[in-house]
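hi! just following up on the protien thing from before. the input was this:
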Amino acid sequence: MRQIKIIVEKHPDGYVAYPLGVKGVVVGEGDTYEEALADVKSAIKFHIESFGPEP
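and the predicted 3d structure came back as:
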């Protein structure tokens, strides 16, 4: 499995996380850093299961 860099940003109303280099819209969010990271990891897994791994 390839490594994917994930950016987590703090916003006034929580955290937003997104992967770099993944085609399509894959975003996670949460009230905490950990929630946003877990959410985006789940979204990445779903994206790969649905559309297949990218080269």
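The longest strand covers residues 6-11.
The radius of gyration is 11 Å.
cheers
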